[in-house]
Every structure is written in structure tokens, then in C-alpha cells.
Amino acid sequence: MAHLVKIHDYVSRYEKNLYHYQSQFIRLKKKRREEKLAAEDHEHFIEEETAVKQLPEQNKKRLFNRWFNKPKQKQNLIEEEKKEPSFPLYKVKTAREKIEEYREELFSFQLKWASSTVNELSELDPSILDHKLLRYLAEEVPDNYFVFYKPVIHYISAPVELEIIVVGPADVWLTVWLDQEGIWKEESKRFWQNSELAGKRYISPHIAMQRMEQAVSQLMLPFAGQLSLKKAVIAKDAFIDEDDDWRRTMYIDKRLFPGWLESIKREPAPVKSQQLKFVSELLSHCVTNSLYRRGEQLSESGDEEEKEGFFADPVE
User: Which portions of the sequence form the region Disordered (predicted)?
Assistant: First the structure.
């Protein structure tokens, strides 16, 4: 699960102490997973024991007789099962259910770190919880990547909202995502069309891409030869009827997306020094709007996370 380092203009713990929080996130995430699995195994044992104790005596005898006594005839067993009411012992969570519950908790925690610090708090738009792409990136991209979700940065003399930037150990991905199904096709330099939405025109993703490239490429200069800048228009649920062109922009549609995501997940390199330096540089140019919390100000070391609990104060 990726480091969600910046959302819009919200304050982020990573911009306060990037090096500390990136390592603490991985450590606490692993610790929480182990604690949760251990706690649920113990809980299931208690539930099973309690459920059996609370069964009516008649049902309890019938249950154990069926467990340990062989039926005299198969037909008798079938008839008995038809007559007997069912009584569930307990519901055991599957491994998949445990993972989904863990991911839900972790996403809430990621939003907390991406919208507040020990001393500051940004007003989180409730609609952000409905951003499926944000959740998808946070959950599917591995933790050797850092995600900037539509950050607002200082560019020339005004704040500018960019699209989605994914920073890996070797590559910086500038991405524009198309969220409709159907077939996307470039109509002109300014507009695109979608086959499922006849009569509608959409601003070309290349306009947002160009703005993003102009803003980020300047910050990339000190990292030339260490990090590669890559650009992609992504439609994971649709087709793109275009070829990679002179703008050196990749088109990743539903045919290519699984392979692209798999290459991201299989990136073997750990978090690297130049990667952290670039993330820090980009964060330093981001716009932040926040309010100070009431009460005594504390250190931004991050140690308070363990005191208050890893998943304390989840996003409502």
C-alpha cells in the first residue's frame, strides 16, 4: 500500500518529516497486520467456545452425537438433517475478509496522515471518501512508491492543481486518468471524445499533462540521470484508440493496464535516497491550507502515533 503523501492542498505529515514517516509507515503497517491477525484468531476461538456453551442442551447433545457417532443408515441421516433446524455456531472470517478489513482501516489511516499532523489539521472534504481512484492507488500501489493525488503547487506566480504523480525508486510517473468506459479517441488538439458518450466532448488529457510536465520538469533537473520522467494517459476501464505519439506520452488502456500495474508491483528496488530527495523537493513546492489544533503544540517527530494508537481517530 503506497505512501499517500499529498492530497490537494491538505497538510501532510510527510511534508513535516518525510524520512521519519516513510519508515514508520512501513513498520507500523506490518505491526498492525500481525496484531490484527493474532487478535482475530484468538477472538474466533473464544466465539466458538462461547457459541457451543450457549447452545440448548438438546441441540448440544445432538451436535456431538452427530460428530462422534456413525449413523446406522445413510437414509436416516438424510431424513434427520431435513427435520433438524440449522443453528450456526459462529462466522469465521475468511483470510480475504480479514485482508479487506485491514485495508479499510489502513486507508482511513492513510487519509489521516495525508490531512493532519500532530499540530495542524486540514478540513477533509467528505466526498474524498468516494474517490475510487484515490483508494485504488493507495491500496494497489506498493509501499516503495509515493503518491501525490492532484496536489496544488506554486508554479510561476500562482497555485496550480496538477493531476496524479506517482514517484517510484527509478521513475516519476505523470499520469492523467480517464474514468469512463467505452473507447476514447482524440478529436483535436483540444478535445477528446468517448464512444459511450456520444455528443460530448472532453478537454484533452494532454492539456493537463503539459501543465504538469512544465511544473515538474524544472524540479527534476537536479535528478537527471537518477530518475526518469514518464508520462501516461491511463484508462483502466476503457480502450484508447491512439498510438504513442511525438509527445512521448504512453496510452495505457484496459488492454495494457494489468501489465503496467504488475510492473509497478514487481519493482524490486526499495525506497532510494534520490527518490526521497525528489519527493521532499516536490512537497516543498506544494500549497498547504491548514489550521493549528487547539492546545499545546507538540513535536512532529511522529512518536505520538504509537502513544495514541496506530489507527486512532479514523476518518469519519
Answer: 296-316
pTM of the model: 0.79
Task: From residue 296, give the alpha-carbon distance in Å to each of 120, 128, 229, 299.
Answer: 12, 29, 43, 10
Q: What is the pLDDT of residues 183-231, one digit of tens each?
A: 999 988 899 999 888 788 999 999 999 999 999 999 999 998 899 999 9
Beta bridge partners of 231: 174, 249
Residues 6+ apart with CB under 8 A from 133: 164, 177, 179
* Domain definitions of the chain by residue range: 3-14+96-293
Residue with cell 512508491: 145
Query: How far apart, in whole angstroms, are the C-alpha atoms of residue 211 and residue 209?
Result: 5
Q: What is the 3-state secondary structure (H, E, C) of 25-88?
A: HHHHHHHHHHHHHHHHHHHHHHHHHHHHHHCCHHHHHHHHHHHHCCCCCHHHHHHHHHHCCCCC
Residue 173 CA to residue 228 CA, distance in Å, equals 8
Classify 154 as helix, strand or coil. Answer: strand
Nearest to 141 by CA among 105, 165, 163: 165
* Range 155-170 burial, b when 16+ CB lie within 10 A, else e: beeeeeebbbbbbbbe
CA 253 to chain centre: 20
Summarised one tens digit per residue, pLDDT across range 99-109 is 788 888 888 88
